[in-house]
Amino acid sequence: MGVRRAAKGVGDFLIEMVGEAVAEVIFSLLACGLLGCLALIAYLSWSFSPRFTIAGAGLLSFFLARGAWQTFRTPMKGRRRGLAALTAVGFTVAAMTALFLLLYATGCDCL
């Protein structure tokens, strides 16, 4: 009985380890692809019009700053509506994307 339980435990450990390794590879590939797409978008935008690129970056920064302000300020009664909710969600998505890139894209050899 002890040998079967030990063999089952080792088998479960190996399956979990291989699953984690595959997930790590998939996440790293996704992060490198996302980083490459962001770099391509920045390059194409800059080659199209540097003024529009700077203006777009300023508007995006303002949007994210307003979202951060909405997210971290003291909550009011009721729920957020309209632009407040949109900016808060936009900031949250941008923060999660940045965290994802920080965790996975910095470990790949694409940089």
Model description:
- By secondary structure, the protein is an all-alpha fold.
- Helix content is 83%, strand content 0%.
Beta content comes to: under 5%
Question: Into which percent range does the helicity of residues fall?
Answer: over 70%
The average pLDDT score comes to 81
Kindly provide the radius of gyration, computed on alpha-carbon positions and rounded to a whole number of angstroms. Answer: 22 Å
Helix count, per DSSP?
A: 3
| Distance between the ends | 51 Å
The protein's oligomeric status is: single chain
Poorly predicted runs of 5 or more residues: none
Write down how many β-strands occur, each being a DSSP E stretch of 2 or more residues: 0
Judged by helices, strands and strand pairing, the structural class is mainly alpha
The biggest sheet, with number of strands, parallel, antiparallel or mixed sense and barrel status, is: none
| Morphology call | flat
Describe, in short, the structure shown.
This protein has 111 residues and is mainly alpha-helical.
What is the topological layout?
Blueprint: H1 2-48, H2 50-72, H3 83-104
Helix pairs in contact: 1-2, 2-3
